[in-house]
């Protein structure tokens, strides 16, 4: 366990350091459109402040017993949903590019959906812990948790934020499957969700345009597919070792979101394949460490928390890198620990704190079942349960 925690901490710290360096590098030539003043230094300062707040929060959560989250799961979940509703409050919520995803806070902005991610993981872990022996039934395995998950996803969906909706559906689906929900129950629900998503996209001109641009990028290279095209140019031009830190060209107005959703392209352009491979390996190690922590959690609640947080970090990284490399259509998701954005950074570090808390109280080689009437066969992670 010590090796897993040390590796996890090292990978997160390395990604944070790389993110701060690349954030300044990608934004050093950016100018405020109103004052024409360089904003790179200010953006770095804000990211450092959020990083410091995230690290402090991570340390506090690590020191606490994660069982506390079980006791306050419902208040936390309801609180995050109420926070998400604030994006629709006039003069408080911010509408950018047709979406309401942010709220004003003193001196900064906050994206509530980032906090909802953790609230949803905690409540699903609570539910699985309470219903472990009955997760293979349709009602207890699909209907009840589906209502909880659907409430959160519905609020995010109408912002609209399709990317986060897909991400959280994948994360919670993974949690339910590993908790013992049957494939035959999950498949029709997943198919229904995909059908609804497809119907929504088909009647949304902007998002259907993104899908079309992803399928035919050469026909939209100067339009909807501009960022994806320029991102691939940036990664390709970087070669093995890159053009040199600060010497990237795509940040000179060619790739507008290079400091946020497309920062992976800047890493590839300036530091090359070596650095991008390091990023991918770091997330792979985080995934393995998170899985190890889940396998050795002292109870099912801790195991589900670890699975949820690990899936959240890794799935979001996969989607972001997939978008930047052209493997997936644009989803608007940040690269964990690296992209600019205080809300995402804070939420991810809070998640890491939960992983550390679960690891701190782990029992190597054992996951108990909370239900006093349960047995090792109820646990999908145990050797006997497989």
Polypeptide structure, described:
By secondary structure, the chain is mainly alpha-helical. The protein has one domain (about 1-380). About 65% of the residues lie in helices and about 5% in strands. The protein has 13 helices and three strands. Strands 1-2-3 form a three-stranded antiparallel sheet, with no helix packed on it.
Protein topology:
Layout (H helix, E strand, L loop, with lengths): L1 H26 L12 H24 L3 H5 L1 H13 L7 E4 L2 E7 L2 E3 L1 H20 L6 H20 L4 H17 L4 H20 L2 H11 L10 H13 L24 H33 L4 H25 L17 H19 L26
Antiparallel strand pairs: 1-2, 2-3
What is shown here, in short?
The chain is mostly helical. It has helices at 2-27, 40-63, 67-71, 73-85, 112-131, 138-157, 162-178, 183-202, 205-215, 226-238, 263-295, 300-324, 342-360; strands spanning 93-96, 99-105, 108-110. A hairpin with a 2-residue loop joins β1 and β2.
Record keyword descriptors for this entry.
mainly alpha; three-stranded antiparallel beta sheet; 4% strand; disordered C terminus
Count of extended strands: 3
Biggest sheet statistics: 3 strands, antiparallel
User: What proportion strand?
Assistant: under 5%
Q: Which stretches are low in confidence, meaning pLDDT under 50 for 5 or more residues running?
A: 367-386
Query: Helicity, in percent?
Result: 55-70%
The whole-number mean of residue pLDDT values reads 86
Series of secondary-structure elements, N-terminal to C-terminal = HHHHEEEHHHHHHHHH
Question: Which structural class is indicated by helix and strand composition?
Answer: mainly alpha
Q: Please tell me how large the radius of gyration is.
A: 21 Å
Whole-number total of structural domains: 1
The neighbouring-strand order within the major sheet is 1-2-3
